[in-house]
Automatic annotation (TrEMBL):
Pfam families: Methyltransf_11 (PF08241). InterPro entries: Methyltransf_11 (IPR013216), SAM-dependent_MTases_sf (IPR029063). Gene3D superfamilies: Vaccinia Virus protein VP39 (3.40.50.150). The lineage of its organism: Archaea, Methanobacteriati, Methanobacteriota, Stenosarchaea group, Halobacteria. GO terms for biological process: methylation. This is Class I SAM-dependent methyltransferase. It comes from Natronoglomus mannanivorans. GO terms for molecular function: methyltransferase activity.
Amino acid sequence: MTADDDPIAKAAYDELAETYATNVRTNAYNAELEFPATSSLIPDVDGKRILDAGCGTGVYTEWLVERGADVVGIDVSDEMLGHAIEQVGDGDCTEFRRADLEEPLEFATARSFDGIVSALALSYVEDWRQVFSEFARVLKPGGFLVFSTGHPIDEFPPENDEAENYFEVERLTKEWDVEVPYYRRPFSEMLNPLLENGFRLETIVEPQPTDAFAEQRPERYEKESRNPVFLCVRATMR
Ligand SMILES: C[S@@+](CC[C@H](N)C(=O)[O-])C[C@H]1O[C@@H](n2cnc3c(N)ncnc32)[C@H](O)[C@@H]1O
């Protein structure tokens, strides 16, 4: 694979991995806004086999293993995976693999997972019909998919003046320590690909900041209490 063929966010996450690993468990936006909401949607996983799709440095993998799951964590960034292995361990209950969510999940047989968690990773995938079709293939009937992503309102003007046409899937960039390319999409292009692939929509959460967020980021609390930043979804395979 040449760098030109690499998934859009791989290089950025390879570069960000060290900082991400240090900050993700304490950063107010992750730890006190996205994580509490997404994790609240995950059902009992004790004894279940779960795919952590876009596992990054393994925050959700660790949480799932602590609750009795066997977890396969996949990510496209070797550097992020390196931190996941360091922090969670590649052990009896965990397996980490390099895999691209834009491609078929060749390592996974049909109906081999009880659940899939995909936190903040799908923004880097252009075609949600393809990825949800793969999720549908590898999930057992009745299996769950919990995912989180940027909220379509937060990713559109006035919050994001780079966006041009609400109704399009647009490739944009955000500036963290490095430029991170991502795709924004309308709300319908989040839910319809899910429904078209046989998922039943169960719950949607538009998280609001916790009290701990207010203590950590008082200057952002007021704004984030009024404006959605993330969208968290639970769906079930029919
Ligand atoms: C914001 S991080 C989220 C990581 C983790 N789920 C969490 O909540 O901390 C996004 C992750 O998606 C991964 N990613 C981006 N594009 C991907 C792709 N096409 N296939 C698999 N993983 C991808 C990145 O490497 C990065 O680790």
